[in-house]
Specification:
With about 60 residues, the chain is mainly α. It is built from two helices and no strands. It is elongated, with a radius of gyration of 25 Å.
Length: about 60
């Protein structure tokens, strides 16, 4: 069984092995995700609006 102090030392050793991405790469990736989310949301809004109008027209309301 591992003591809490030994566990914390092991965690610090493992965290030291992590290679972090450069800041520019993280910002670029974040920007791409935000833009893609906005584009997808706009597309889904248009599809939903179109379906709502078609259903409304079929029902006659």
């Amino acid at each position: 069984m591992t003591s809490p102090a030994q566990f914390i030392r092991q965690v610090k050793q493992e965290v030291a092995k992590i290679t972090w991405l450069p800041r520019n790469d993280v910002l670029r990736g974040t920007f791409v995700v935000i833009v893609a989310s906005v584009v997808l949301a706009a597309f889904l809004f248009c599809v939903d609006l179109s379906f709502a109008r078609v259903v409304s027209w079929i029902i006659g309301g």
